[in-house]
Specification:
The complex is a heterodimer of chains A (about 450) and B (about 280). Chain A has about 450 residues and is mostly helical. Chain A has helices at about 20-30, 35-50, 60-85, 95-115, 125-150, 155-170, 180-185, 195-225, 230-255, 260-270, 285-305, 305-315, 320-325, 330-355, 365-375, 390-405, 410-435; strands spanning about 175-180, 355-360. Chain B is an alpha/beta fold and about 280 residues long. The longest helix of chain B has 16 residues, at about 200-215. The chains are: A mainly alpha (about 450), B alpha/beta (about 280). At the A-B interface, helix 8, helix 12 and helix 13 of A face helix 3, helix 5, helix 6 and helix 7 of B.
């Protein structure tokens, strides 16, 4: 029988612990290098545009606009991460955005408002609920065909791209439908759809409490099972950076002030007397941006802390193994597409509210920006890898490029050329990174 | 790894004495199992059983039907006909979850690991530990993973890395840990040592002996007799989807078993099956 010495083990020595320098620092603070690279790229883009545009990019006004413009595609990108992680693709999200936006506008103007009355506070909730349900059903239907009937996602959603765009036209015969409910329009941002300085600070304070409690909970969890703790200095460093980011962002959105006429109108409606030297009223965080961040937090929670999220990644890593482990892979796939459809409806609410109306072309090409955002954010098209935060940053990178080029006055065709080239280069760099770290 | 030349010249009978009690009800009794894929009888009227604390080596060429037979037991395939009894009771096994409910755990040749998640997530895949709030309890799962991996592979430290970053042996130990974590009563190991070096192979052998002591019944599937001969209490040979015969390992030589695998010829020490060569 085996006379092999039993002190040999199946292990190869792990990576040497305590490697110093940058690597050691990254390990102690548990910062993702890819994430850091993306933040670096974003800063380069921002500073580059700031210099090229003669100092108009890094202004509170532009950054505030950037945040609002990112929200719609960003919301969809969080769902696209799960779709791509399960080795699928969804080409129909732009069209689902179009049709659910149109359904919400028609439902609001023709049915909900007449039923509940003009100034009912429930109109926006009913509108949003109808949109979400429609998005969920559309996504679920596509998911059913993909998971249970075995038609490839590429084909089903390519069909969906045409079907739902056609359906959007059909809902209102190609007309543009203006929204009637002012509460619903708040979801789109603007001066009314922002929460002002005081509430922005309250949100910031809540975020800080949330971050600190999160760190404490992680420490408690590690202590419970006697795992190695993160060093105190590393904890302080990451906490410090997060808090500075929250406070900095809040200061920026609060230093974007309402322009003179709007401020006067605001003062009149709220009965404030205008002091000497004009009135300073801050925009603060825009509601769609808060919605975007909220969706990001919920989606991160789903991917990290729920069974569903764990299964999504396991399926992406090895579908056969997931099946053999007893996971109902078909049901998970259906749920991923249903969730994607619902997020497209959230994005539809934001963009419809922002335009104050639903148009037939709404969301055209958004599927490509959404996929690009997810992929630039580190989601692997081979499946199994991707983060929500990465996709959110990816959406911000895409939007920064676009609005930067608008600021520089570049022609639309040239903008498309740049965005397309950046997408290819970004994925190429990511491929290099993966090959090196594999 | 053992060279073919060495072993072929080894004509002596195995110095292995089996002390398995085969008088009671078998743990597993598969009777007259058949399955066909597109007209080809992958498994044809095959019967096989397994007792507590017994290691049964299921041998045969690639394509002999052994993996297919065992995938019916683990729920990956659905049989066309035949019956499965677990501890004397008729069992209905339609998917991998059913098999696990009977305490049947499988270590596949491919290991069937989700490469992109860490060891703990793989160990508990499909059977996660949850907190009272219905969220994943990763801390508890990692703690359990550290316990079981500490037993199997004490030097293992890479709990935070996706399993694709692990060595072949480490991946194997994750797959084994997953199989024994949930009180397996029946363990199926498909080509358990095919991808391993000599030291790692020896460790798997030690583990099998330990599991035997815990009264777990084990099916070892291999196309290479040298991998499993010394570990097994009994050998069952398949050819062209049929059982050639079975024998206590102590009653046959490696050469005789090779004759069963290659020619389908049943030696005097073995009980012939439907697939045995007719004289």
């Amino acid at each position: 029988m085996s006379e092999a010495t039993s002190d040999t083990s199946l292990t190869r020595p792990g990576p040497t612990a305590g490697a110093g320098g940058f690597k050691g620092f990254m390990r102690a603070t548990e910062i993702d290098t890819r994430m850091l690279g993306m933040i670096g790229a974003l800063l380069v883009i921002w500073v580059g545009f700031h210099i090229l545009s003669g100092g108009t990019f890094l202004t509170p006004r532009n950054l505030w606009n950037l945040s609002v413009q990112t929200a719609s595609v960003g919301v969809m990108a969080t769902g696209m991460v799960l779709v791509i992680v399960t080795r699928n693709i969804d080409l129909s999200v732009g069209s689902i955005l179009g049709v659910t936006g149109m359904i919400m506008a028609v439902a609001q103007t023709q049915y909900i408002t007449p039923m509940l009355g003009y100034d009912s506070g429930l109109v926006w909730i009913a509108t949003l609920a109808i949109g979400l349900v429609c998005g969920l059903l559309i996504g679920g239907l596509q998911g059913f065909v993909i998971a249970y009937l075995g038609v490839p996602a590429f084909i089903v959603t390519l069909g969906g791209l045409l079907v739902w765009r056609g359906a959007a036209w059909w809902v209102a015969s190609g007309r543009t439908i203006p929204l009637t409910d002012d509460n619903f329009k708040l979801l789109g941002g603007g001066s009314d759809g922002s929460i002002g300085a005081t509430w922005s600070w309250i949100v910031a304070a809540a975020a800080i409490v949330f971050i600190v409690f999160g760190a404490l909970a992680a420490r408690r969890q590690r202590k419970r099972f006697n795992f190695a703790q993160k060093p105190m200095w590393a904890e302080a460093f990451t906490l410090g950076i997060s808090l500075i980011a929250v406070i900095g962002a809040t200061m920026i959105v609060n230093s974007y002030l309402l322009p003179g006429p709007l401020a006067r109108r605001y003062a009149e409606t709220n009965g404030i007397t205008v002091p000497e030297g004009g009135l300073e009223i801050s925009f603060g965080y825009a509601i769609p941006v808060l919605l975007f961040i909220g969706v990001g937090i919920v989606m991160t929670f789903i991917t990290r802390r729920t069974r569903f999220g764990r299964y999504v990644f396991a399926i992406g890593g090895n579908p056969e193994a997931a099946e053999l482990a007893g996971i109902n892979t078909k049901r998970v796939t259906l749920m991923v597409f249903a969730l994607m459809g619902m997020l497209a409806a959230v994005a539809a609410a934001i963009s419809t509210a922002r335009l104050s109306s639903a148009t037939n072309a709404q969301g055209t090409l958004d599927e490509l920006y959404t996929i690009a955002a997810a992929v630039i954010g580190g989601t692997s098209l081979a499946g199994g890898a991707g983060t929500i935060a990465g996709a959110m940053l990816g959406a911000l990178v895409m939007q920064s490029l676009q609005s930067g080029m608008v600021l520089l006055g570049l022609d639309t065709p040239l903008q498309n050329i740049v965005v397309g080239a950046v997408l290819v280069v970004a994925v190429w760099l990511d491929t290099l990174y993966r090959r090196r770290s594999a | 790894m053992s060279t073919t030349m060495d072993s072929i010249t080894d004509h002596g009978p195995a110095h292995h004495h089996s002390d398995v009690d085969r008088s009671g009800t078998p743990l597993i009794d598969m009777r007259d199992i058949s399955i066909a894929f597109g007209g080809i009888h992958a498994v044809d009227q095959a019967s096989i059983d397994l007792y507590k604390g017994e290691v049964v080596a299921l041998l045969g060429h690639n394509g002999a039907g052994k993996s297919t037979l065992i995938k019916i037991l683990s729920g990956a395939y659905k049989r066309d006909s035949g019956e499965i009894f677990v501890r004397g009771e008729k069992a209905s096994i339609g998917n991998p979850r059913d098999a696990k409910a009977y305490g049947i755990e499988t270590i596949y040749q491919t290991l069937a690991l989700a490469d992109n998640v860490d060891a703990a997530a793989n160990l508990f895949l499909g059977r996660e530990i949850m907190t009272p709030w219905g969220t994943l309890d990763d801390g508890a799962m990692e703690a359990e993973a550290r316990k079981v991996m500490g037993r199997l592979n004490p030097n293992f430290r890479r709990f935070k890395e996706p399993v694709k970053a692990l060595s072949g042996g480490q991946r194997q130990s994750v797959a084994i840990a997953r199989a024994i974590l949930f009180n397996a009563k029946i363990l199926i190991m498909d080509e358990p040592t095919a991808a391993l070096g000599p030291q790692e192979t020896a460790q798997v052998a030690d583990l099998i002996k330990e599991l035997k002591k815990e009264e777990i019944g084990i099916f070892l599937i291999s196309h290479d007799i040298h991998d499993v001969f010394d570990l097994s209490d009994r050998v069952v040979v398949m050819k062209n989807g049929q059982v050639v015969g079975s024998a206590k390992t102590e009653d046959v030589t490696k050469d005789e078993v090779l004759g069963m695998i290659i020619l389908g010829k049943c030696p005097p020490g073995a009980t012939p099956g439907p697939g045995a060569m007719k004289e």
